[in-house]
Design a protein that fits this description.
The protein is built from 8 helices and 11 strands. It is α/β, with parallel strands linked by helices. The structure holds iron/sulfur cluster. Iron/sulfur cluster binds near residues 47, 113, 118, 143 and 144.
Length: about 325
């Protein structure tokens, strides 16, 4: 951040007069200097990135030295740091809070979720970047960004302000966005260094794992490799503080035995994998959707799931976002 203006000396000059000092500058530069030296961020956070933001505001990093004091009301804030995943539900509230802030005002999108939706980008309930809703001045990458990265973003914003920017701009929404179909997903052929287990043997394998003292099922999740799904199971042995992961390759039917008889906690985790990936679990006591409505079409975490399907009741259209913008 070598070109950040650091002090009054950068925007004018001091003259020594007999019995007094005089400082000469332009009012515009002075106001810009005052703005950048007294950013008051709105105090709110959305997800894990907000924890890093809180750490950034802690005494260790001491943002007070930059003139930054968080405010509990948008009426007194001139900086919004969007730290966390922006859900559609929260999107409208963010827009309202932004509108309630007095100008000039600035926005930092902190973390991959706020920038682009990150791993939730294609999920029905997540806004693929907060710049779909409000203008963004600085993007701070990371998942989550470190406090140092937050500070780097704040210094970048100070630099922008000291150059006189005070009007909101939609930085990236004016750019052409590729359609989801055009975006090439890098194929990971080899993700697992361990052997993949045959899906027909999952019940026996989990019985064996439990008999070895792995008494807790941490999670079940799936990865879509285009030509097949791979399920990942994580177990813990709480007596010996050990963990065990197994990976199961599914056949074309995407079907395997439920392990909820062995690990009761598998019941809702299998329902989630069914809901998001369409995997069927034999002998599951109640294999129904758990997150999506019962009549939802498709399974949102499959790669071939199309965002523009007819049945997307909770997600505003691009036109909705565009109409929000024109009301700025
Ligand atoms: S970018 Fe990573 S750390 Fe930040 S909100 Fe998203 S998932 Fe959490």
């Amino acid at each position: 951040m070598g070109n950040v203006k650091k002090s009054l000396k950068d925007i004018g000059s001091f003259m020594k007069l007999p019995g007094a000092n005089m400082f000469m500058t332009k009012t515009e530069d002075l106001f810009n200097w005052a703005n950048k030296s007294s950013l008051w961020p709105l105090s709110f956070g959305l997800a894990c990135c907000a924890i890093e933001m809180m750490a950034t505001f802690s005494s260790r990093y001491d943002l007070d030295r930059l003139g930054m004091i968080t405010r509990a009301s948008p009426r007194q804030a001139d900086l919004m740091i969007v730290a966390g995943t922006v859900t559609v539900k929260m999107g409208e509230r963010i827009k309202t809070l932004y509108d309630q802030m007095a100008g000039p005002k600035w926005v930092i999108a902190a973390g991959s979720c706020a920038i682009s939706g990150d791993h939730y980008r294609h999920v029905y309930s997540v806004v693929p970047g907060v710049d779909w809703i409000i203008p963004v001045d600085v993007y701070v990458p990371g998942c989550p960004p470190t406090p140092e990265a937050f500070i780097d973003g704040i210094l970048a914003l100070q630099d922008i302000i000291s150059k006189g920017k005070s009007a909101p701009t939609f930085n990236s929404v004016s750019c052409e966005r590729k359609s989801i179909d055009e975006v090439k997903v890098k194929k990971k052929e080899i993700l697992f260094d361990k052997e993949l287990i045959d899906s027909n043997l999952i019940f026996e394998k989990c019985n064996e794992i439990k008999s070895l003292g792995y008494n807790y099922l941490n999670f079940i999740t799936a990865t879509d490799f285009d030509n097949s799904l791979v399920l990942t199971y994580m177990f813990s042995n709480n007596f010996e503080n050990k963990k065990l992961e197994i990976n199961v390759k599914l056949g074309p039917e995407n079907r395997l035995d439920s392990i909820s008889n062995i690990y009761p906690g598998a019941e809702w985790q299998e329902r989630e994998v069914y809901d998001m990936f369409g995997v069927k679990f034999n002998n599951h006591p109640k294999l129904e959707r758990i997150l999506m409505p019962d009549d939802w079409i498709g399974h949102p975490l499959l790669k071939n799931y199309k965002m523009e399907q007819a049945k997307l009741p909770y997600r505003p259209s691009r036109e909705d976002y565009e109409s929000w913008k024109t009301k700025l």
